[in-house]
Write a structure and sequence with these properties.
The chain has one domain (2-253): Rossmann fold (3-Layer(aba) Sandwich). By secondary structure, the protein is an alpha/beta fold. It contains 10 helices and 8 strands. Helix content is 41%, strand content 20%.
């Protein structure tokens, strides 16, 4: 198990394969384990980096809730690339991981060769919608503190398969990382200057409109909707998902 120590917080990560770097980030209350099948397929041609966000999986859960934030998550991603001496990477993720990948591009566009945005929303333009999202995130935090890891029961497959060490760490992550404070990620979409693959499960109702929106706003975006798949599209339809991603990356290398 590889560990990056960033300011006293140990971040778990794994690297498989050699070649062009692909950094994949998981969704809220999932772990890097959700990418296992993807890694098996991509690592034959690419250097695939997966990691557990702070508060998740095998990474540390700091006791200070202020250390859980969008800014620190983006900084963790940058520190991981620097630790591995990677100048440029294909950056992507699912749900919260996809949102953080967009935030990473916003802050460090020179580090990104392409984006993989999977079952993700770009945030909210209207404050009322953002506040409704945040209320849901805060409720999830409260449930984790009240019920512990049992609060994850009934969630989508990537969450059910995850193994965590700290319900409190997840609660802090819900409050500090899952909540949103502005529309800066949404605003950056038209200025993205790298190719992007937007993938969504056809049955992931809340994220289909968001995916259509991102595909319409990002200048070089390609949208793929995968049938018979929900929020965990890579687990619901792994063969189709892996085929879509591998074909996209092959096309990207031919540019």
């Amino acid at each position: 198990m590889a560990i990056l120590n960033r300011a006293g917080v140990k971040i778990h990560y794994e690297v498989r394969g050699v070649g062009q770097a692909v950094l994949l980030s998981h969704g809220f209350s999932a772990t890097s384990g959700m990418w296992r099948q993807v890694v098996e397929v991509l690592s034959g041609e690419y250097q695939v980096i997966t990691w557990d966000m702070r508060g998740h999986g095998q990474s540390d859960s700091p006791k200070d809730p202020a250390t859980y934030s969008e800014a620190n998550t983006v900084a963790d991603m940058l520190a991981l690339l620097e630790h591995l001496e990677i100048e440029h990477a294909i950056v992507g993720g699912l749900s919260l991981g996809g949102y953080m990948s967009l935030a990473f591009y916003r802050d460090h566009p020179e580090r990104v060769q392409s984006l993989l945005i999977i079952d993700t929303g770009p945030g909210f333009k209207k404050s009322a919608a953002r506040e409704a999202w945040n209320r849901t995130a805060l409720d999830r935090a409260d449930q984790l503190e009240a019920r512990g890891l049992a609060a994850l029961e009934g969630r989508s497959p990537e969450v059910l398969a995850a193994q965590h060490r700290s319900a409190q760490g997840l609660a802090y992550a819900a409050r500090g990382m899952l909540t949103q404070r502005d529309d800066s990620v949404m605003q950056v979409l038209p200025s993205i200057r790298v190719p992007a693959l937007v993938v969504v499960g056809a049955d992931d109702a809340p994220f289909v409109p968001a995916s259509n929106y991102m595909a319409s706003k990002i200048p070089e975006a390609q949208l793929v909707v995968i049938e018979d798949a929900g929020h965990a599209v890579n687990l619901d339809q792994p063969e189709r998902f892996n085929e879509v991603v591998l074909n996209y990356l092959t096309q990207l290398n031919r540019r």
